[in-house]
Amino acid sequence: MTGPDDSVAAWSDALAAATATPAGGSAAGIGGALAGALVEMVARLTTARDSYADIRAETSSAAERAATLRARLLALAVEDATAFHDVMEALALPRGTEAEIAQRNAARAEALKGAAGVQYELLLLAGEVADLGERLVARGLRSAVGDAASAVFLAAAACRSAYWAIRSNLRRLYDDPEAERMMAGALERLEEVAAVEKRVVLELTERL
Q1: pLDDT above 80 for 75
Q2: Which pLDDT tens digit goes with each residue over 191-206?
Q3: Which among 11, 105, 119, 130 is least surrounded, fewest beta carbons within 10 Å?
Q4: What is the per-residue burial (b if ≥16 Cβ within 10 Å, else e) of 47-73?
Q5: CATH of 21-207, one of 3.90.550.10, 1.20.120.680, 3.30.1360.70, 3.40.50.150
Q6: Could you give the CA distance from residue 16 to residue 22 in angstroms, rounded to a whole number?
Q7: What's the chain's Rg over C-alpha atoms?
Q8: Which of 36, 17, 20 is nearest to 155 (CA)?
């Protein structure tokens, strides 16, 4: 087995640097991707066991979906940093006249919604990872239950991070229906993921 991939070390170094980006949103994307990788691993291990042949189609499908989610979550880690730069560019626009202030405010609102949109997608996808992980905790390879549970916990953490990032970005966009819908949808999905995490904890408590 080789050591950590250079890209993992590079992300860690970039997050540790005294720079504005990458930051929490990117870390959440990476955490969600790692959760997806664990789901994919457990699903593939389960698929390979003849004793789990009755759920092979389900676990094979879960592995494929987890691979797709993992790739997209990693991409969102990069997109989050780009979205932050867009916000900074909007805030740097001139505001010396009424027209400039109006233009700056409009650009700021769009940039903030764009940044929130990245995190909203991250929340939805990480939530799906948590759902897949929960099913594997219940039905997947018994010896890998801890790995499936770890996937759920990592995905849930990514969802919580994404939710509060959305709140932070949208909190000052008043009377904006799009922002209000995103906030409401994010909270609803976060509550569902929290319920998943709670069920997994109960499952572990009973089994371990």
Answers
A1: yes
A2: 999 999 999 999 999 9
A3: 105
A4: beeeebeebeebbeebbebbbebbebb
A5: 1.20.120.680
A6: 9
A7: 20
A8: 36
